[in-house]
Amino acid sequence: MLALGRSISRKLPAHGMSSCPGAQYLTAREQHITWHEGGVSREAKEALLHQKGCVVWFTGLSGSGKSTVACTLEHALYRRGVTTALLDGDNIRHGLNCNLGFSEAERAENIRRVGEVTKLFVETGVITLASFISPYRIDRDLVRQRMGCRDFIEVYMKIPLEVCESRDPKGLYKLARCGKIKCFTGIDDPYEAPERPEITLDVDDPQGRRQSPEAMARIILAYLEEHGYLRTPLSNNAVKGPSRGAAGLAQKKVPALDYSI
After folding, report:
1. Rounded distance, CA 196 to CA 227, Å?
2. Does 221 reside within a domain?
3. Residue 194 lies in a domain
4. Are strands 152-158 and 199-202 parallel, antiparallel or unpaired?
5. What mean pLDDT is predicted for residues 61-72?
6. Which of 49, 84, 97, 111 has the most C-beta neighbours closer than 10 Å?
7. Predicted pLDDT at 142
8. Structural domain boundaries enclosing 140
9. Which residues contact 80 (CB under 8 A, 6 or more apart)?
10. Among this protein's residues, is 134 annotated catalytic?
């Protein structure tokens, strides 16, 4: 069972108000800040890229496969000539959010900042893949509210705790179980599952077979196609034979995976 712990029930800030921990709740007008419109519309940028900007927001426990599926999907989109950006929870904490810890307030600020970054990418027509545990429902809802439902595609990695813990790729569950890591999501800090995600990925397929990252990425790819985010047919952008990306990996002596899904 996941740790339920306290109930997270922070209020959604009103439009134009900061959700930063400790920030004064002043409107942009009160701070004498004026929005400056760019000279090229979002629609023009999307037309140039032949795609519609959105964020595919992966949420789930540590070890649920968020980053693996996101990387797999990124390779599949690359092979189609789709412009993407990949934001990973650990990577973001090496730079943009290196000054944040793991308290409730700092987790909220972590997701708020990431939400603002994804919004910038999405508004330029880029399909953005965001891989974050993002354990609190209210923080994910804030990002959705800020971006708009059309731009926010929530992907719930519905992988049981026991499966994630058996994988434990970074050894974090072991450290949490012996008390060396405190407030670890799923152990002594809560994870609040999405109530109405656009996509739910289960550990097994309907036939009871364990789903591969490629199979999960294929489900997301189909969603993007069906909902009009990918405008260019596969036949116009398919890479014949090994992709340039795969060739580059081979030159670096890094194993290249088959992402032709």
Report:
1. 17
2. yes
3. yes
4. parallel
5. 96
6. 111
7. 96
8. 51-234+242-251
9. 230, 232, 234, 237, 238
10. yes
